Amino acid sequence: MHVILPVVFTLGTLVFALLLVFGVTFPTLLIEENQRTPINLPTLSKIGLLLSIELLIASLLVRKISALVAVNYSEEKPKYSDLLSSILIVLGYLFAFYRGFRMPNLWTMGYFVPSYFDGIYRRALSGTLLYVFGDLRFNYYLIVAVQVSIFLVLNILFIRELFKSNFEIRLLFAIFLFSPAGGYLFHEIGYVDQLLLLLLLIAITTTNNYLSCFLVAISPLFHEEAMFIVIPIYSLSLLFRGEKLEKMQLYSLSLAFCSFLIGIILRSSGSDVASFAMKWGLNANYPLRLDYVSTVLAVRSTAFAAIHYAEHQIVALGITVFVGIISAFTISIRATGGRKYSLFAIGIICIILPLGLGLIGWDTSRWIFLSITASLLVFYVGRENLKGFIFYASLASVLLFSAQVKLRYFDGYKPRELSSPAISSFVREDFFRLVREIPKL
Question: Are residues 145 and 251 both part of a single domain?
Fold first, then answer.
């Protein structure tokens, strides 16, 4: 494995370099610049070259990074570490809430309304579970109550796990909250990503193997992106703990793949989709997102149309992958032999796969957010290794992300300004207005 990784990344570097030299272009849809028609640009080759070079250098440094880190670390906690980390996390949540909070948008209703009973097969498990509420399941505020509950349970569970862990991972999470990803976490309330992260967090923290395997197996039925988030990080956690894959865990991964196939192969009939859309529109207390019906429910899966990253995002992608590389170093630094390189490789896969969604989906800032969140979870899995040099490197990488990366919000929203008038306006008026009004998009 220590030879395979450099060879693979060297080949990747050569391929993308040749594509640039010979002027090969790919369809590129610049959604970040409000472009709606693909044009041929070398953006994919530039991104591929940068990331391949990063990963090549990282693969060559795996052994040297391990040698730089002392084997024995002091287990003595910094004085007042619990109090300091608690204060920073509370302040981080307040900061992130102010910067990014909004009520769930109407697109997110689609993750929780369609059900198998309606003849819908794609991303329909959430709606199937809520089918017991009858026509009330179409109500905006019922769905919001479910979405906010998911958000709260996810964060409460993660904080509980953090305070069972070391100071270093808590400090890293606090910086994550102060970064653009913190505001985006609140801006993304309602998206199915948070449900998948909740399932993943339960799967990697519970001691009940039956529960973890069950959640992993069904996760793609909520959304196909579970294959890009839940499965790789869950697999990494098993390998890191040194567990051999039991039959039950192999079955759960196989069932997850079958669940994924159900979502992308089975197609709802046009009459079922039309009937459901009519029922949805008649019972909802908000405008129906017909684009969700036409682009998600009426088709099997999203097909490649164009790369959606813009050239100005290349640096952001490079920094995001750099954070992921440090997390992969963290997870593999104490391992030996082939296991070290296996952990490193899977750690890299965990942070590259979410970025790969930019080949099929135009929410490019969302994919960057999911990648940096995946890095945070990889840091969490390998938190016992966050000592000395690797800890300071992880802090530096997340601070670099905070300083240089900007995430584009949905529906024309922007991070709120850090000024006294803006903060005062949010506390006195804007927050209550947001909570009272149903979004238009």
Answer: yes
